[in-house]
Amino acid sequence: MEKQKTVKPVNFLFLGFYALSGLFIEWLFSLLEPFLFGGFTKTTQQCLHLIIACILWGVVSFFLIYRAKIKYLFNMFALRGKIDGKYLAVCIFLLFAVFLISTRLEGGIKPLLDFRNLDTVTFIFQQIYQLLKALMVLLVIIFGQHFGELYFEREDIPWGGFLLAFTWGWAHLSVQSNAEGFFAMMLSIVYGVVYMYFKKDLRYVGPIIAIMFIL
Questions:
Q1: What does the alpha-carbon distance between residue 87 and residue 70 come to, in Å, rounded to a whole number?
Q2: Which end of the chain is more exposed for a tag (fewer CB within 10 A), N or C?
Q3: Residue 21 to residues 15, 99, 128: CA-CA distances in angstroms?
Q4: Tens of pLDDT along 50-62?
């Protein structure tokens, strides 16, 4: 009980920023790759990037989940709730809308394009990479939402989605087209809405966000 009294909303905001730092470190590392792996073939460089990113995100996500549970007594896997049918319908609609927009922007269904353009080993690493990236994004959503609910005392706003949109989503505007950047921001808020509508139950939220992310 003594530990619980020391927990502050800002602790969860910091956890969200730590998760974001894992995403941004991967981006910074990609800028150094030509100097580090310049002597390797393009396929080897791509595989090395995917492997290192997966290791980085695996370690960071484990650390953040463990720290939240042990130090701040927040077990994200224990959250459960009864899902309203109308919210389920909204989430299915959002999933379909995300699929259509992503397919339009990518010029096809993303996993099929990857399968066609990559060799088998790189394709497998690419899908693992996408799943772990989705996990990092989900952690930003979870910690951002918990911070917002504790600090502002409102549970009906997708705080985690807004945190992700104006950090990770906004960053896409500087490295991608405006359409892709704004789509990343919109998608961030959609993730936050899905997390909220599914009552933070990771048994449902995790697979849905992973599917949205891969598609």
A1: 32
A2: N
A3: 10, 27, 20
A4: 999 999 999 999 9
Amino acid at 73: L
Length in residues, the chain: 215
Helices assigned H by DSSP within 71-177: 85-106, 110-117, 120-152, 159-164, 170-175
Q: Is the overall model pTM greater than 0.85, yes or no? A: yes
With a CB cutoff of 8 Å and minimum separation 6, the contacts of 168 are 20, 23, 137, 140, 184, 188
Q: Among candidates 187, 168, 191, which has minimal Cα distance to 17?
A: 168
How many CB atoms lie under 10 A from the CB of residue 53? Answer: 23
d(CA 118, CA 126): 9
* 134, 136, 142, 148: CA torsion to nearest 10: -120
- pLDDT by residue (tens digit) across 155-189? 999 999 999 999 999 998 888 888 888 999 999 99
Query: Looking up tokens 């990343």, which residue turns up?
Result: 184
Name which of 104, 73, 83 is nearest 4 in CA terms. 73
What is the Cα–Cα distance from 111 to 128, expressed in whole angstroms?
Answer: 12
Q: Which helix (H) or strand (E) holds 43?
A: helix 42-70
Asked if 133 and 61 touch (Cβ cutoff 8 Å), the reply is no
- The pLDDT tens digits of the residues spanning 8-44 come to 999 999 999 999 999 999 888 877 877 877 777 778 8
